[in-house]
Amino acid sequence: MRSLFGYRIFIVLCVFLAFFSGIAAAEETRTFVDDVGRELILPVNITAVSPSGPLAQIVLYSVDPDLFVSISSEYSDAQLKYIDPRVAALPVTGQFYGAKSTMNPEEIMEMNKELGIDLVLDIGEAKSTMKEDLDKIQAQTGVNFAFVTQNNLSDIPGSYLTLGELLSEEEQCEKLSTYTSDLLSEFAVGMNEIGDNRKSMIYVVSVDGNSVYLIGSGENSYHGEVINYISDNLANEAVTASGMGDEYTMEDILQMNPDYIIVAYDDEHEYYDAIMNSADWQSLRAVQDGNVYEAPYGPYSWMGGPPSVNRLLSMIWLGNLYYPDVFDYNVDDRVKEYYSLFYHYDLTDDDLSELMEYAKPAGASSQGSATSTGTSAYANQSPAPLFALMAGLGVAVLIKRRSH
């Protein structure tokens, strides 16, 4: 009898243990549905994340650099100044989508043995095959893949709220979401006030002799979204979806004659110098008025490349540069705020001067904002040499004659 009683007690204890073990196991995992409808079973606390590409790498860093256990691509020397050395030294797991796709399922499986990856994070525009693609690589690797939409500027506030839930980083993601939502609201009001009185501009990606590459306009120009929003982009509707831009001739540029020219950054300032020093460009209004600027870079270009949350900096910068009476704030303060929040980096005044060496009106101090007088942004800059101006005018006249 005692033996039977003891056996029953043993069974009851086993049932209770199994029950409470099930509760404990349930508490250690949770369900999350990503932005392409994939249901994932995830750890309650995500501590080890691998970005699947450059956009994910930028956005994940803004949430919490400590989450990284790998990076999608190595940082350049120019970027390292702003990046946590621990993150910069992590192994490279590659990029899943895009022309530079290098992510290999077998390598992910091998790396996961050492890294213990909780999640591979993909961020960007949802492709038609994304659900199937992510299901396939997740099945191959045994590692969770999650996708969060962040394509257009309007996607950014909501995407951070989704990331807060996904990564259990609600507090930081709420800050980032609120910041971007407030910024977009500020610009919606400001651009409504500006109305049709937008400054015209071109964004020069590169210059190669008579060939000039511009970021195109149009609703499908992902790389040109900020340009199209805050200015009259004189480039035609974008043909290429890449950040390399579409090809134009010097004759095309002379006919556009924009108010402002923004030039993509390069280490030697080659494209900026080509525009400022070449006789071919001197007849343009933007050059004569000194309204030629090179986009700041560090750790990413403010204009894009890749086009992620770093584009918010171009809004802050160009909004005040073009329309100082409407976007009346101290650019330096706003840039420092952004770097602290998104890059976890406190900019010094020297850092800021270096970043914006070719991006501020002449005579603007390292602590000042763009001029609010409505006059030429480079009013204090030395005018182009007379021979260059005359040569440029000669080119324009010759082109005009040929066009007839």
Automatic annotation (TrEMBL):
Gene3D superfamilies: 1.20.58.2180, Nitrogenase molybdenum iron protein domain. One of its GO terms (biological process) is cellular response to iron ion. It comes from the Archaea. PROSITE patterns: FE_B12_PBP. Residues 45-326 form the Fe/B12 periplasmic-binding domain. This is Periplasmic binding protein. It comes from Methanolacinia petrolearia (strain DSM 11571 / OCM 486 / SEBR 4847).
